[in-house]
Write a structure and sequence with these properties.
The chain has about 550 residues and is of the alpha/beta class. Among the domains are: about 140 residues, Rossmann fold (3-Layer(aba) Sandwich), CATH 3.40.50; about 110 residues, GMP Synthetase, Chain A, domain 3. About 35% of the residues lie in helices and about 25% in strands. It is built from 17 helices and 27 strands. The strands form seven sheets. It has a nine-stranded mixed sheet with strand order 2-1-13-12-14-15-16-17-18, sandwiched between helices. Strands 4-3-5-8-9 form a five-stranded parallel sheet, sandwiched between helices. α2 packs antiparallel against α3, α3 packs across α4 and α7 packs across α9. It is globular. It binds 5'-O-[(R)-(benzoyloxy)(hydroxy)phosphoryl]adenosine. 5'-O-[(R)-(benzoyloxy)(hydroxy)phosphoryl]adenosine (OOB) binds next to α8, β16, β21 and β22. This is AMP-binding protein.
Length: about 550
């Protein structure tokens, strides 16, 4: 069966420029692994649970997995959905895939059958790699559901002690013996993997990243963050996400020869003992978790003094919270404003405190081109809010196989419309003000209003629904569904259970449901979904404020 080819192409003049300038070095993931394994052979690459692997061992395991996957029947170029939590095997699996020239498609552990089916279909995947269980959830049951609907997903590989319950699944430790040599080195301009978008409309789009572009962002990030062989990075957020994967994340740490410590959960209960035991120097969190850590640290018996840098990103960190990081945790805050599509901004470790607490950083590269435009597409003056557009050596030029989305998300001259509203300050520092698009940034997890509305509309007692974001003191934003019932209104809890029961990631279930008799319309009788959502949100917040002042 022919699958849709993967590609990511920059205009030849720019590609030549990035190569000549030494931004794209031609390094590929297989070469990256081999070089680190020879240079840092005996050093500890990754720690997790009872396991502690050296660089040499990580490379040996990845090589064994690569041969096994090919012997199993997967072929170079095949896409493989990887849904693996923070365990050392995440790294041996993805590097195994790279060595076999198989293409990982990163799913998050929170994803359920709706998301996994979508990713597998959209990528035309033939393989699916899971951990047997994680945080009380049985991924084999999920795999059974997904493969029943999608027979093309032929190979299910299960990581875990217990033998797979199902015939037809293969344990990672029981892959067949490698049958031949590994394939030839990929070209650095080839797509190495598919990352997933936050999904501002509908389901996530697939983001093809090349060896050249991604490894540039990894190396540059490791440098900006001052990583060395002595760095110990705690992977607290799910490593399949772009932030803990490459900003600088686990890949940046491996680039520098440091040690990755896999935390099964980002909670202080799981993370603090690991920080103390492994003398962790750096980690990355989303804002709500950073707030939890700030609350828990003063009462903790664990020694957190090894921590030098706390990164916070994925959603806006308020300046008030940001100012508490140094006094409470005794470490430097680094704000990270990035996107799986490419552009990543960092505050630098030696920036003045006011920049660190008050901005979301500046781009990695002098070759990142950043535009801040008004609604008519004209540049706004410095300090004024506008739409952020960007292109550069590690920002994609298009999603996989989605001309409609590409026409909306990219300008004819190749700028990516991020959907973010930012203000630019002197020195190129960006301050994020909000989103132009209709998605909810729920504690860093992006929820598309449209996707949830579609699920709500599938309920027989729902006539219409509009999902909006509301400010939330803990999550940053929470989702609120305004629903017009068809006849008798269902109970809010029942409607939430209905949405969950459709097999969605938990973070997409509306946090709040408000029943309304009708949606207001304009004199012409029609409003766009966008206007409708904006109006519902505004009216609700105004009514809430009025209630608060009167009480
Ligand atoms: C990261 O990546 P995605 O793809 O899950 O989400 C990207 C979107 C951005 O467009 C922006 O809306 C929001 O997440 N965002 C932030 C932010 N960092 C991301 N909004 C405000 N302040 C921040 N610091 O979330 C991501 C990827 C790489 C590194 C860090 C985060």
């Amino acid at each position: 069966m022919m699958t849709t080819p993967l590609q990511q192409v920059w205009p030849p003049d720019l590609a030549a420029r990035y190569r000549d300038a030494g931004i794209w070095t031609g390094e590929t993931f297989p070469a990256f692994l081999r070089a680190r394994a020879s240079r840092f052979a005996a050093r500890t690459a990754v720690v997790g649970g009872e396991q502690r692997w050296s660089y040499a061992e990580l490379a040996a395991r990845a090589t064994r997995i690569a041969g096994g996957l090919l012997a199993q029947g997967l072929e170079p170029g095949d896409r493989v959905v990887v849904q693996v939590p923070n365990i050392p095997e995440f790294l041996s699996v993805i590097f195994g895939l790279f060595l076999a020239r198989l293409v990982p498609v990163y799913a998050l552990p929170a994803h359920r059958q709706v998301e996994v089916l979508h990713l597998a279909r959209a990528s035309e995947a033939r393989g699916y790699i899971i951990a047997a269980r994680h945080e009380g959830f049985d991924y084999r049951a999920l795999a059974r559901m997904v493969t029943a609907e999608l027979p093309a997903l032929e190979h299910v590989i299960v990581i875990g002690d217990d033998a797979p319950a199902d015939a037809g699944f293969t344990a990672l430790d029981a892959l067949p013996e490698p049958a031949g040599p590994l394939p030839a080195e990929p070209a650095p301009s080839e797509v190495a993997f598919l990352q997933i978008s936050g999904g501002s409309t509908g389901l996530s789009k697939l983001i093809p990243r090349t060896h050249d572009d991604y490894l540039y962002s990894v190396r540059a990030s490791a440098q900006i963050c001052g990583l060395t062989p002595d760095s110990v990075y705690l992977a607290a957020l799910p490593v399949a996400h772009n932030f803990p994967m490459s900003s600088p994340g686990v890949l940046g740490v491996l680039d520098a020869g440091g040690t990755v410590v896999m935390s099964p959960s980002p909670s202080p209960e799981a993370a603090f003992p690991l920080i103390a035991r492994e003398k962790v120097t750096m980690t990355g969190l989303v804002p709500p978790l950073a707030l939890l850590w700030l609350q828990a640290a003063p009462n903790s018996a664990h020694d957190l003094s090894s921590l030098k840098v706390l990164q916070v990103g994925g959603a806006k960190f308020t300046p008030e919270a940001a100012r508490r990081v140094r006094p409470v945790l005794g470490c430097t805050l680094q704000q990270v404003f990035g996107m799986a599509e490419g552009l990543v901004n960092y505050t630098r470790l030696d920036d003045p405190e006011e920049i660190i607490t008050g901005t979301q950083g500046r781009p990695i590269s002098a070759d990142d081109e950043v535009l801040v435009l008004d609604d008519e597409g004209r540049p706004v003056p410095e300090g004024e809010p506008g739409h952020l557009l960007t292109r550069g050596p590690y920002t994609i030029r298009g999603y996989h196989n989605d001309p409609g989305a590409n026409a909306r998300a990219f300008t004819p001259d190749g700028y990516y419309r991020t959907g973010d509203i930012v203000a630019r300050r002197p020195g190129g520092y960006l301050v994020v003000q909000g989103r132009a698009g209709d998605h909810i940034n729920r504690a860093g997890e992006k929820v598309s209003a449209e996707e949830i509305e579609d699920h709500l509309l599938a309920h027989p007692q729902v006539f219409d629904a509009a999902v909006v974001s509301l400010p939330d003191p803990f999550l940053g934003e929470r989702s609120c569904a305004f629903v017009i019932a068809a006849g008798e209104a269902p109970k809010a809890a029942a409607l939430k259970a209905f949405v969950r029961g459709r097999g969605l990631a938990d973070f997409k279930v509306p946090d709040q449901i408000v029943f309304v008799p009708a949606f207001a319309t304009t004199a012409v009788g029609k409003v766009s979904r966008k206007e409708l959502r904006a109006r519902l949100r505004r009216d609700f917040l105004e009514a809430q404020a009025a209630k608060e002042t009167s009480s």
